[in-house]
Structure formats: C-alpha cells, structure tokens
Amino acid sequence: MRMFRSVGAKLFILFFVSTFVSVLLVGLISYGKSQSIIEDKIKTVSQQTVKEATEKVALMLKQFEDMSLQFSTSRELQQQLDILFDASADPADLMNAKMTVQDTLNQIARTNTYIKSISLFNTGDENQTISSVSTGLTAIDRKAEWYTKAIGMKGTALWLPMIENGYTGLAKGNLFALTRVVNKFVIVFEIDAAMLTQTLESIHFSASSRMFLSDGQGTMLLSSRPEDVGKRFSVADESDDQLIVSELLKKTSWTLTGVAPLSELVAETKVIRNLTYIMCAIAAVVAIAIGYLILLYIGKPLLKIRNMLNEGAKGNLNARVKINRKDEIGEVADSFDRMMQQMNGLIEQTRTSAHKVLNTSSTLLHVSQNTATSSGEISTATGEIAEGSAQLASEADQVFHIVDSMNADLSNVVNATDEINVSSLDVKSASSEGKRFMEDVVQMTLDSESSIDLLVKRVTKLEDSTGEMQKVFGLMNKITKDSKILSLNAGIEAARSGQQSGGFKVIAKEMGLLSDQTHDSLNTVNLMTETIQDEISQTVKALKHALPLLQNQIQSVRTANAIFNKVFEKSEAFTLHVEQIKETVVRLESKQRHLNTSIGNVSSFSQQASATSEQVSALSTGQLQSSQEVVGIAKELESLSLSLQETLSGFSSRDKI
After folding, report:
1. For residues 643-656, b (16+ Cβ closer than 10 Å) or e, as one string?
2. Rounded distance, CA 424 to CA 203, Å?
3. Torsion, Cα of 580, 583, 585, 589 (10° steps)
4. Which intervals hold domain HAMP (predicted)?
C-alpha cells in the first residue's frame, strides 16, 4: 500500500484512469448517440416504408373499387342489369342480357388474376343472382352482418376481412371481399388474400421483423408469419426493445403494422462499441507505457528527493540529491543541495558561536561571582563603618555633656576668684572646698582625656577604614570596567552572530546597562566616602588641636590643686596669684567654649557619617542583589549554551566515512 502513496504512482494511476475512462466514455457516448440516431432514422424510414406500403395496398384496392364503379357508370351495363332483373322482360332479351352481364363480369375478373369471383345479388329478390364463375343461383346469408352493413352504406364501398373460401362460397382459399350497393343489386368482389400477403412479405425491416394487417379490434387478418393470423395485437404487450410502426389504410378499418427488434436494426452499431473496446485496450497499453515513463522520470527522482529530505531531517547535512536535469525537478534538486550546503555552514557557524557564548558565559559567571563576593564584603565593611560612626556620635555626645559641665565648673571658678577678692577670710574654707572641687575636676579632666584619646583612636581607625573602603571601591571600579568591556565584547559577538543570537544581544545589552548602573552607584558611594573621609580628617585635626588644650587644662587643674594644697601654707601668696588664676580661668573658659564647639561638630559629623554609611550599606546591598541576578543570568546563559551545543550535536556536518 505504501507504493500508492508515491506521487509517481498517483500520477500513473491518474493518467491511466483518465485516459482509459476518457476513451471509454467517448466510445460509449458515441455508441449510444449513434444508436439513438440510427434508431430515430430507422423509425423514420420504417414509418415511411409502412406508409408507402399502405399507399401501395390502397392503390391496389382502389382499382377494385374503380371496377365496381363501372356497374354504376356504364349505361349499357345498367340497361342489361335492368333487363336481367326485370321479371316481365322478354326471355330472349333476358338471356341476351344475362350473357352480356356474364361476359362483362368474366372480362373484369380476367383483368386481375387475384379476383376469384364477381357476384351480383338483387336486393329485392334473393333468387336473382349472377356470378362470373357460376351461371346458377348463388345463395348467401342475407342476414349476415356484412350484408346488412353494405345495404346500410348505400353505395359506399365496404371492404370485408379475410375469410376462408370467401363470402359467396364460389371460390376457394383465403379471400377478402369488396361489396357495395349499385342501384337495386349488391356487387361482391372476392379477391385472393395472397395479393396482400406478397406485399407484406416483400417488406423486411430485419431478419425477424414481421408485417401484418389488422382490423379495428386489433385482430391480425394477414401476417408475414401465418401463425399470427387471428391473434390479437396490442402495443402494451410488446417489449420496449421492439420497433412498432403502423399506418391506417384509407377507406378501410384496417391497419398495416410493422414490428422489428431494435437490437437487430442497430446491430451495425456494435461495430462502434467493439471499436471502442479495442481503442480502450490500446489506450490502456499507451497509458501504461506513458505511466511507466512518468514513474521513471518523475516518481523516481521525487522518491530520491524524499529520501534525501528524510536524511536531512535525521540531521545528516551532507545529504545531496545530485540530479543533473534542466526541468523543475532538477531545479528542486539543485535548490535542495544548495540549501543543505548553506545549512551546513550555518550549523558550523552556530556551533562556533555557541562555544564562544559558553566561554563568555563562564567568564561572566566567574566575574559576577567575584563581584557578588566583593559586594558582600563592601556591605559588611559599610555596616561596620555605620556602627563605628554611631558609637563615635554617642561618645561625642557624652564628651559634649562633660565639657558643658566643665564650663559650668569654670564659671564657678570665676565666681570663686571674685569672691576671693571680697573676703579673704573665706579663703581657707574656699580653698578647702576648692581642693575637693579640684580633685573632682582633676578626675573629670582625666576622664575627658581618656575619652578624647579613645575618640582619637576610633576616629583614626575610622579613617583607616575609609581608606580600606577606597581600596574596595577601586577594586569594584575595576570589576565594573571589566564588566563593561565584557558587555561590549558580548555585543560585538552578538552583532557578528546575526539573527541567530537575538537572546544573546538582549543579555549583552542588559549587562552593559547593569555595568553602567554599577559604575554610577560606585561613583556616588566613592564620592560620599571621600566626603566622610574628609570630614573624619577634619575631626581628627580638631581633636588633635583640642588635645594640647585639654592637656594644658589638666596641667592647670593640677597646678590649681597644688596651689590649693599650699593654701594653708601660703595664704599670703594666694592673693598675689588670684588675678593670675582668674586670667588663666578666663582663658580656660574661652578654650573650653572652643572645645565644646569642636565636640559638637564631631557629633554632627559622626551622625552624618552614620547616615552616609547606612546609604552606602543600602547601595552595597542593591549591588549585591544585582550581582546575584547577574550570576543567575550567567548560569542561565551557560545552560542555554550547553543546550544549544547538545542540539547542534544532532547534526552531522562532516562527510560520512
């Protein structure tokens, strides 16, 4: 069954069937049309033949009618008949008239050999008769139907059907008769039916055709086949393949009918049918030969092209048809060979591009992982910076409160020195109180010194951390530049690959955008870090500048403590040094105000550094997420590259050994 699905087999079957059926249809249609035309022509000719035969018979019967009219048109014969049938006539005249009429009847009878007898019957006297074959009395049945009908027709000719031995009994054989009334007598012509039988037998439509003469009731009076005489004929009883033509005889109630089988009439058309069968056989042989040529020159090349297409579908790109023809099949084969050659080149190019994409995706994955690691480290570092900045702000706030308290103490010292001038009596008590107060001040100053030293160390450490951040940002800038270069290279490779790397173009574009966004984010973070570093540097400078003042203050406090210790010993020297102490305290108050301002600035800078570090931490977190997304894209790109290589491995682009 598979061979019937072939185009060549279908073309062969189509050509064979169309040719055979066309020839067969043309032959059968020609046969049917010719048969129909011949049938129509035969019907027309047969009808004309029957009509001519009817006219011939009518002409034959008319001569008998004309003979019968002589008895009414001949005056001499009328006179002789009047004498013959006159009972009062002279016997000699009667005998003479009888002989004359007898001779006339004999003469008329001799004019036609088919006339068997001519008889005259007196309508008024049944004993007065005369005949051409008998001189005696001729007795007839005057009550017969034909006689009564003849009398009733009053001179019109009446043809009587065939009957054995006639109507008068004067002749033998199958006879028919003509009768009519002439004056006072009835004339009867009895005619041999052989005359009409010969006419019927002379008409032949075919070998088994028949002609017959029937009366008004369909009873066959005469027939070319004697066994049919007396039978009734009905058109409904005949089969459809019978040709029936009939014609009514004039002046009679008889009908001449011809019946013939159509199969015999159109038998010659079978030559056309046989010729049609012969032509169908010849057409079948020619169609088979041409069909074989179609199979050879169309089906076989198409089968070869189909096999090569199946080879190409299996991945064999080296399949070639190699049909050297100049027609459409040759063009299809050449187009197939060129298509397979171009597909071979495209597969090789795609395989190379897939390998490059795989290498690029591996590099991108490695760089993205490094970027993600660096982003995590940056995020951790910025978190530590934010915590340090928060601690620095808290300690600066504490120092601020301490310095503010010192300002209040210095104000008290100024008031105390003023009170020293008012009352020296209270010096001892004030000195004692001053001693205790100065001990507290010394302790607080020492605490302030420790706090400032700690603040200086933390700020220094923060400055070092910002330096490390600068190094990390430098590394991230380098990674961003490498990513940018990588995206540019990927875009160049994508442009080289053409339409086969539409997805790779999108990835390269997204990598470029991500690299640009990362570069901008790093620039912003770097700028903020530089600002923080600058502010930290200024804070360090301020603290370094405040440290000597604080040390001087400590020294002054220690000096004041020593003085208060010697108050009891040197009360007189107290007054001399009061003004000096007052001036020192005023300068200390001024420096304390500067210190208070510097510590407030340190607190503000620490808060700003904390906020900036939080922003850097958020940006680092975003950078980390972006890096992780890039890692995911790189892994997906690597997976797609491997899948593409696996797909391309199904194509064979090298010659098979």
Report:
1. ebeeebeebbbeee
2. 193
3. -170
4. 296-348
Instruction: Give the residues across from 316 on adjacent strands.
Output: 652
Q: How far is CA 68 from CA 59, 62, 155, 272, 544, in A?
A: 14, 10, 10, 55, 182
Task: Note whether residue 45 is domain-resident.
Answer: no
Name 210's bridge partners: 259
pLDDT digits (tens, 9 = 90+) for 374-385: 767 777 777 777
Rounded-to-10 torsion of CA 138, 143, 179, 198: -90
Q: pLDDT tens, 149-205?
A: 988 888 888 999 988 888 888 888 889 999 998 878 899 999 998 888 888 888 877
- φ/ψ of 536, rounded to 5, equals -65, -40
pTM beyond 0.85, yes or no: no
Collapsing DSSP to helix, strand or coil, 320 comes out as: coil
Confidence of residue 656 (pLDDT cuts 50, 70, 90): very low
Domain range for 400 is 343-648
Q: Which residues pair with 226 in a beta bridge?
A: none
Distance CA 159, CA 525 (A): 146
Looking at the domain assignment, is residue 405 inside a domain? yes
pLDDT of 657 above 50: no
Could you tell me if residue 272 is inside a domain?
Answer: no
CA nearest 448: which of 560, 547, 587, 539?
547
* Overall domain count for the chain: 1
In sequence order, the 6+-apart residues with CB closer than 8 A to the CB of 499 are: none
Q: Which amino acid is at 24?
A: L
Q: Which two tokens stand for residue 627?
A: 């890096």
